[in-house]
Specification:
The protein is an alpha/beta fold. It has one domain: 4-Layer Sandwich (Metallo-beta-lactamase, Chain A). The chain is built from 8 helices and 15 strands. It has a 7-stranded mixed β-sheet. The longest helix has 17 residues. The radius of gyration is 18 Å and the shape is globular. The two termini are about 25 Å apart. The structure holds zinc ion (ZN). The site of zinc ion (ZN) has 5 residues, from loops. Zinc ion (ZN) binds next to loops.
Length: about 280
Amino acid sequence: MFNVTTIESGYFMADGGAMFGAIPKRAWSRKYVCTDDNLCSLAMRCVLAVSSDGKRKVLIDLGMGDKHLSQVNYYQPYDLLNIADALDSHGYHSNDITDVVLTHLHFDHCGYATLKDVNGDVMPSFPNANYWLSGQQWRNILSPNRLEQDAIFADNILPIQEAGLLHLIDEDTMLYDGFRLRLFDGHSVGQLVVYIEGKDGVIVFPGDLIPTSAHVSLEWISAYDLCALTSLTEKQRFLEEAESNNYMLIYYHDARVVKSKVKKINDNYKATDLHYL
Ligand SMILES: [Zn+2]
């Protein structure tokens, strides 16, 4: 069993039309607030999961980091928090982290995987951790497609591979007792979704499969997703199980709703039991 806490690593602004794809603004703006120029504030909510015996201290996704701020300032990042500082407030040091799970390699999920040292060299931020990533994501970064190439920075992951810390997942895996990784496509290839047994049941970190509580509805698919139809069938597969097993979902990008459960209504899904920031 694991004790799960969330870390708010910062926020950025994304176009609401892009976040909600084909859904009209009249519909999505009732569920997610935006500014006058249509921008939605998105969180980068990481997870720290510590096993009850204290042996595993796992981080899931790592925010955008600070190595590429000039390239991503279009997204107006704000309130960025260094994960190392956040760990400090939980009584841990970066060296204590045993595992890092990266759901995928878009810059807003893995920026703090590496950091620049005093000489300007880029090093793993968590030198004693095993970093877990899907094999498909790793192969994707070696020849990024045109739609994703601006969202991927090689120095977020290459120094980890060079340090021998990178481990690739090619099938659904029980990594540790009560800690499972499963693969989902659609948003990108081979995104990892994390299932954790907590004291009140299973907590799931769906990453960008369901970035906010508004995206629980099946057709609410971001235009950032590479393949909308695959996202739809993958969400359906995920939500069916989440509802019947009463999972708690933690939303990485929802600036207001930290976590919720899901409920099937007619042939669609809705977020219920919402926990606000
Ligand atoms: Zn993404």
